[in-house]
Amino acid sequence: MRSLFFKIFVIFWIAQSLIFAISTVLIVRHHFESPDVLFDGLHSSLENDARRAVAAYESGGCATVDALGAQIEQQIALKDAAGQDLCNVAGLPLPPASADNPTHITSSQTGAEFIWRVPITSPSGKTYFFLLARPHVERPHSLLEDLVHFASPTLPVAIVVGGLTTFVLVLFFSRPIARLRKAARELAQGDLKARVKEPVSRSRFSSEDEFQALLHDFNHMAERLESLVGAQQLLLRDVSHELRSPLARLSVALELAREDASPDMATQLNRMERESEKLNQLIGQLLTLSSMEAIESADRFAPVSLNQVVAQMIPDAQYEASQRQCSVVFRSENDCTVQGNRHLLYRAIENVLRNAIQYTNPGTEVEIRVAAGQDEAGHTVSVVEVSDRGPGISEAEIDAIFRPFYRVDRARSQETGGFGVGLAIAERAVKLHGGQVSGRNRSGGGAVIRMQFPSAKTAAGSTERQAG
Fold first, then answer.
1. Which CATH number fits domain 35-135: 3.40.50, 3.10.450, 3.30.420, 3.30.450?
2. Strands 85-87 and 436-441, bridge-based pairing
3. At the topology level of CATH, where does 189-294 sit?
4. Is the peptide bond before 199 cis (omega within 30 degrees of 0)?
5. Which of 147, 148, 350, 364 could serve as a FRET partner for 422 with CA atoms 20 to 30 Å apart?
6. Which among 90, 45, 41 is positioned nearest to 65, based on CA atoms?
């Protein structure tokens, strides 16, 4: 996505550069005439002043020439063909003639003045040299003033038009992509009903738009994904229900077999009973997971104290931990209340706690902590953290442990047990409460599972007790 925007902006930048380049050429052509045009205009003006000065001299002498100079507000002089002064009150020197053509107009700088030399022939056939002097004044140079003077209004108009064009084009490209990203995030978070809103009426221009086709394909993909996942969940639930009946009959058959079996068959019958019980537990967990997947809202949730929920499960957890020569420690740093379902919260936290007990090393302790915290946006949240001292989790598998039937222990040994469904149930229950669950490795060995809930109430208080 980033590369697409990069390409779009490169194209727009090139277009803007072309617009500004063309505007600059137009500005220069508008404000700066070519040198030939400038010199032609200057020579024409000088020749016109020279003819007027010669006519004034031949009709009224130097007094008339001086009056003409005062009229045009310039210092002028008149010399004969030999370069002798005829009328030269200011004492202007005669600039040298052009080496290529003596009849050309030439100029020279004397001190702080520019003097133009104009050869002119009167109607009577006499040749004169007309001189005109103008002081040279250095104008202070300012880049900003030049830009304002010469680029206005063409350049501002070009910038405004180019900016509006870029904004419209970027908006045209970015809006459908933004809607697609929003729907993709919702789909990734488990909302299989997420769709991108498509325009009801399409113009002839947009009917073949690649972006509209992409949005349509995304919606089709989401519909197909929702259908497949729904069918999978329905199949899982139906199979689980159907397995309950033969399992119940199997239990009855085992009890009947015990009555007629010889004592040496007790070991095999006990093994069959344990395996049947495990299968029954797995079916129960699958039904629980399916029921949670079917829940979409939390409209009937009520305030629940996380501290009380955890305290209620501690005695059973401590008894189970004692079978593995470990202990459970409950640390309550704040009184945390959330909006939720007590049964679902109990199941979520219990599954995480039992998982930690299964994996912690003998002789260590499993710590469960309830405290108030803050999320990334700075909002107050209630946090339940369960830490163990087991082998930890591979960094590549941390996000995968909450998937159904996923186990870090690929061998599925009898020592660790479990079916890989408990953390999936916990993850779904936490999300139903608007929370988040994550895992990380603990310094010194072990893993930490963090469950984060939006707080309904957090009250300061600190207690710590050893469970058991």
1. 3.30.450
2. unpaired
3. Helix Hairpins (1.10.287)
4. no
5. 364
6. 90
The predicted structure's pLDDT at residue 179: 84
Residue with tokens 């470990």: 326
Q: What are phi and psi of 365, to 5 degrees?
A: -125, 145
- CA nearest neighbour of 184 among 392, 1, 456, 51: 1
Neighbours of 361 (CB within 10 A): 14
Measured CA to CA, the distance from residue 334 to residue 336 in angstroms comes to 6
pLDDT in tens, 214-243: 888 888 888 888 888 777 667 666 666 667
Residue 202 has pLDDT above 60, yes or no: no
- Residue 439 above 70 pLDDT? yes
Q: What 3 state SS string does 409-444 have?
A: CCCCCCCCCCCCCHHHHHHHHHHHCCCEEEEEECCC
Domain 302-466 fold is: Heat Shock Protein 90 (3.30.565)
In this prediction, residues 427-448 reach a mean pLDDT of: 86
CA dihedral 154, 159, 164, 170 (to 10 degrees): 150
Mean pLDDT of the chain: 76
Phi, psi of 78 (to 5 degrees): -135, 130
> Of how many residues is the chain composed?
468
pLDDT digits (tens, 9 = 90+) for 336-357: 888 888 888 888 898 899 889 9
> What percentage of the chain has pLDDT greater than the value 70?
72
Neighbouring-strand partners of residue 438: 450
Where exactly does CATH 3.30.450 map onto the chain?
35-135
